Amino acid sequence: MPRRFASCRLAFAILALGLAGVPAHAADGDLTAAALGREIFLDPGLSASGQMSCATCHDPAHAHAQSNALPVQAGGALLDVPGFRSVPSLRYLNRAAFSFDKEGTPTAGFNRDGRAASLLEQAARPFVAPHEMALADAAAITAKVEAAPYADRFRALFGEDAFDDADGVFLRVRFALAAFEQSAPELHPFDAKYDAFLAGRVMLAPAELRGLALFNNPRKGNCNGCHASQRGADGSPPLFTDYTYDNLGVPRNMEIPANAEPTYFDLGLCGPDRVDLADRRDLCGAFKVPTLRNVATRQVFFHNGLFKNLRDAIRFYVRRDTHPDEFYPRGEDGALRKFDDLPAELARNVNASEVPYDRRPGQAPRLDDAEIDDLVAFLVTLTDGYDAATDTADPARNLPPSAP
After folding, report:
1. Cβ–Cβ contacts within 10 Å for residue 61, how many?
2. What radius of gyration, in Å, describes the C-alpha atoms of the chain?
């Protein structure tokens, strides 16, 4: 079934269940789907292990991303089943289904491969995936929710017969989670130092300003090409992603157990979860461009969690093609196996034309070490929860009271 029709069918199901009249969010203290969704999000009881909640992998204290430096997390009944990709942050999620724009560029959707058309759809898989919460089916989920501390609030919100139908329970659980993710202030705070700078309340330090210039310069970092730093036409704060997809040729991460099988490749947009794109071999290896908000808080980078700090991730961007031997292995014949996390015939899909990927061995990288440091300094300004009183980047950081 085409994705747009599946979304319509889901909307009709919501109406049939009477969820259309359920308040998604309201003032604090009101019984809302969002308030219930927060409780569900934090509840480790909704898992086969009894120890894994949504917040286990999407930790609020770590910008709703993972709290460790493991490339993948482990779930299942015994918390010993490894996953396949690093955990993305849930902050600043887009709300649009996957599509191709008028130029044929893939964009939007949820998950790193865009397979989910909505937050409702995205929330389904973690509950039943063997490497995540690993519940058997909707009936198992229903039993868990009915025994949860918030079961009475679930009935109060959705009706006394809310637990009569297991599939309906599962949909209501996901509806509540989606309401929470759409409306919770902590998921969309827009209170980073850069937001204060755009509002004219704080001046960036010299290194941060240099980093911003490098970020926007199309002949240097060219980060702005996919991670727009300007306000939207409507004045909305920048999200630092265009939600398109790119193939960066990130090296294979042998810390991921699945990669021990030489024939296994995570192909992103044309992988097994995207049966609708199975014949689009030109999209193989492409993953969604993430927001760079809170990127400085991350402990692993890229879909396979290969790099462990932000500076190393940027260094890969600018030195991948000038110094490939720093990142890729050599085969038994001594030849460099560049783009080794793709089948050889798909290496042509890697972005090798846009700045900063347009370099060749022997040429200088687009950014030197000092410029990388400046770029890191700027990216730190995208971290939520900025407090000018504790900012030591520049003693002259605050604008005078008369500034606009």
Report:
1. 8
2. 22
Structure tokens of 214?
A: 């490098």
Best CA proximity match to 242, nearest among 109, 350, 65, 63: 109
Q: Is residue 331 located within the same domain as residue 257? A: yes
My answer on whether 91 and 232 are in the same domain is no
pLDDT given at position 147? 97
User: What angle is formed at CA 375 by the lines to CA 374 and CA 378, rounded to 5 degrees?
Assistant: 90
| Residue where a domain terminates, one of 159, 187, 215 | 187
Domain boundary among 160, 187, 214: 187
- What sign does the dihedral 306-308-310-312 (CA atoms) show? negative
Structural contact between residues 162 and 155, judged by C-beta atoms closer than 8 angstroms? yes
pLDDT tens string 241-300: 999 999 999 999 999 999 999 999 999 999 999 999 999 999 999 999 999 999 999 999
Which amino acid makes up residue 380?
A: V
Residue 314 is assigned to a structural domain of this protein: yes
DSSP state of 65: B
- Full residue range of the structural domain in which residue 124 is found: 3-187
**Does residue 379 sit within a domain?**
yes
CA distances from 184 to 60, 180, 196 (A): 12, 5, 21
With CA atoms as reference, report the closest residue to 381 among 238, 253, 156, 196.
196
Distance, CA of 172 to CA of 19 (rounded, Å): 8
CA angle 256/257/259 to nearest 5° reads 75
Assigned token pair, 271? 């992988």
User: pTM above the 0.85 mark?
Assistant: yes
Beta strands in 159-220 (DSSP E): none
Residues making up the chain, counted from first to last: 404
Largest CA distance in the chain: 71
Q: What does the pLDDT look like over 109-155, one tens digit per residue?
A: 999 999 999 999 999 999 999 999 999 999 999 999 999 999 999 99
- Could you report the per-residue pLDDT of 338-348, keeping only the tens digit for each? 999 999 999 99
User: In this structure, are residues 241 and 112 in contact, taking their beta carbons and an 8 Å threshold?
Assistant: no
Q: Give the chain's end-to-end CA distance (angstroms, integer).
A: 53
| 343 assigned to some structural domain | yes
- Rounded Cα–Cα distance for residues 248 and 226 (Å): 13
CB 10 within 8 A of CB 17: no
